[in-house]
Amino acid sequence: MKGAFYIDGEDMYLRFGAVFISGGYDNILTFPALKDPDKNDWPEEDGVEVDLSDPKLSSKEITLDFFAEDAFGFVDFVSKPEYHVFRISSLGREWKLRLSSQTDNSVWIDSTKFSLKFVEDSFERPEEYAPTSDCGVIIPKCSYEIDGVSLRDYGITVTEAKDEVLKSPTAKRNMLSQIQTKDGQIYDVKQLFFSTKDVTFKCEMCADSIEQFWKCYDAFFYDLIQPEERALYVGYTDEEYPCYYKKSSGFKILSLSGTVRVSFSFTLVFTVFRIGETDYILGSEDDERIVLEDDGETCIDMKYYAG
User: Fold this and answer.
1) pTM score, two decimals?
2) Strand 230-234 relative to strand 144-146: parallel, antiparallel, unpaired?
């Protein structure tokens, strides 16, 4: 209780009897979404051309859940003008936030359960950050690489993504005419091009300490928002796809004692994707390619055997 979190250097438990409820600060780990970049969407081409020469992050809303003996005093404290510096001891980091609204409030005789929404307006991007390194725990082999770096190098295990990766994008809309004196409509079916698609990866990030977790966290997200598109390699299709970071969500702290474990999702925008151009090859259960014995190099085309 004592020393769990501080606002503007003051222990909130000692001053207001305030504590976070279970999972009450998970949301603070969310990495900001990317501001929508400028793009050209040509109707006669798949996907889009996107300007990622200088990607910028949006502000971030954070909802925190509390119990407090003196909830009115606590809310009054964080309602004062200027930003307030939050420090959560178990996470070993600080956030500069301003109050936006009170989203929930349940009053009992001697305490109150309530939720407050805060906004993080700006961020200090590190000019330099430690590159991805060993997270200190054993991570299963991963089918995904971004710019040649396996997600396991960031301590990440992908728990769900394959269905969305392999799903075809929405078709772009061609010329269409509506004639009031005729049934139906007239549509140009001589060509078909696909839009972009969003793919959400459900993941778990693990590290042997909170310090190592933040190194992996920073390396992963700041690598994602470097200028220009990212190249996502997918092992089970043996293809690379151009994409860029869109947002993160669903952060949940699973463990902070012993191995640090945090589940979350991140979304990439595939700028060009056409399922018919993907080659499917035979692989083993651990995503290794199976090759012919004759030369040790030729992969087995599964579309050929599928007829």
Assistant:
1) 0.84
2) antiparallel
